[in-house]
Structure formats: structure tokens, C-alpha cells
Predict the structure of Damage-inducible protein DinB.
Amino acid sequence: MNTASTNIQTSSVLTSADLLAHWQGHRALTRRVIEAFPEKEFFEYSVGGMRPFAGMVQELLAIAVPGIRQVAKGSTEELDEHLDQSKTKADILRLWDEATEDINKYWAQIPDERFSDSIVTFGLYEGTVWSSIFYFIDNEIHHRAQAYVFLRSLGIEPPYFWER
Amino acid sequence: MNTASTNIQTSSVLTSADLLAHWQGHRALTRRVIEAFPEKEFFEYSVGGMRPFAGMVQELLAIAVPGIRQVAKGSTEELDEHLDQSKTKADILRLWDEATEDINKYWAQIPDERFSDSIVTFGLYEGTVWSSIFYFIDNEIHHRAQAYVFLRSLGIEPPYFWER
């Protein structure tokens, strides 16, 4: 993001640009997992009484852009997991791609020193900016992995976890 | 880890100590997921033809300490997922706790500037040190989430994802 400052902090664990690329790599994999589901099963199938993957993806969409907008703007955002009334996989994939662009846009507005700030995401969850962003990513990995089990139990080979 | 240097890099996304605490928080949750399984189901139960959770935990144990030892020592490590012949959950939990201590020990030997180095973990996987460590963590989140589905399909309530 900021080449001048990343050159100075040679001992940073990772840079802001690294973290964005890491998240977008995970998001690209999640997109392929959405694509791997048949239309009907994406919205209806689950194991063990859990939500279908479509419900989890709605949660991921509700978190990602509003969450990063709050980081970038200092705005107050509400967590509304029922925002999206789309009813086809193609609609969800379109929203996913719009979110990809929005994340990039808001990320570019986050100064490096912002990551250690305290934040209460969605007015509910206390942490630092970095720990909140990791929560967004980890929560995505968590629900996507559950979708891997749904796909396996449908007899569908999921995308490789290590391909981003 | 190194207070003097972390004070200087105020614009680091997160510090080495932050990343260790993040990983160990995830590892504490994974430990509770292991505990949540009945003895027999831990070793035998799965969904969709996947490995039982015990097999996944053996993989996590095979990666964590050898992986971080390679980062700390520059040693060449082999990935041996069949290292452990333990056959009870209590044995696995003991190995898990030993790994917790070993990770802390090796982590303290990692200089901050090491995280951006290139590395080929287990002689196989190319990346940077930070991306390799994130792979270790992300892979743990991924497999643990699959165990959440196994537990749900057994009618067992898993630990809360957000409690570390």
C-alpha cells in the first residue's frame, strides 16, 4: 500500500498489502467453493442441522465490506446477515465480486498505523483492527471448511485448500 | 518478543507476539474441540468419507512443531503425519500440550526480520515465513471446522468459535 513506509519497517511480520492479498486469496477460494455447489444444494443442503452454505455466505458478505468500511471510515456499521434477498447462485457470485472490489477500495484508505487501534466492530465486538480483520478471515475459513464437508457428503470433490 | 523493536515499528500490522498469541488462541480452541469428541468417535467417526478428526489432529501435530522449528533453526524438517502412534485421546491431548510449550520455545528464537524470509517448509512448500505460519494456522482452522460438522452430526454442541 505504502511503499515508503513498508521499506522502513523491514521487521514487520507482514505488510498491509500482504494481508489484503492473503484475504483476497482466501476469498477467491471461497468463490470456487460456492461455484462447486449445485444450485439447489447451495441453498438447501446441510449436515447435522446446520445452515446451508448460502446462509453462511450471506453472513460472510454481511461482515466483509461493512467490517472493512468501519475500519477505513471509522463509521458505525450494523451487522445485517439478511441484507441480501438474492435467490440465485449467480446473484451471490455477483455480490461476491462487488465485495472484492469494495474491499480493495476501502483497504487502500487504511493507514498502516490503524491496525493496532482498538475497535468495536458492528458496535458489538471489541478488539484491535488487526484482530478484527483476522476474525473476518478466520470466520470465512471456518464456514468454508464446513461447506467442504457438505460437498464431500454430496460426493463432490471440493477445490484444493492450498490453491488461492 | 522484542519490546525495543516493536516500539519502533508502530506501523506493523501486528507484532510477532500478537501472532503467537493468535495461533495459541486457535490451538486452545482446537484442544477443546478434541475434548468434545467421545473417545471412539474421535478415532473412528467422520462424514462424507473424510478422515476422522484424530487423523487431522495427527496432521496438525506433524506440522506445528517441526514447521516452527524449521523457521527458528533453519533446519530441514520432514512432514511425517504418522509420527504418533498414540491411541487414546488423553495421549493426543498430552502431545498437544507438549507442542504448545515447544511452539513458545521456538517462537522466542525467531527474530522479527525473519518473517519476510523465503522458506521451503518441509522441503516442499515455497513461501515466506509469514505465509507459511499462516498456512499452519489456516489449515488448523480448516480441519477443526470440519470436526465441528462431525460433532453437529453426532448431536454434540461444539465449543463457541469466538472463544479462544
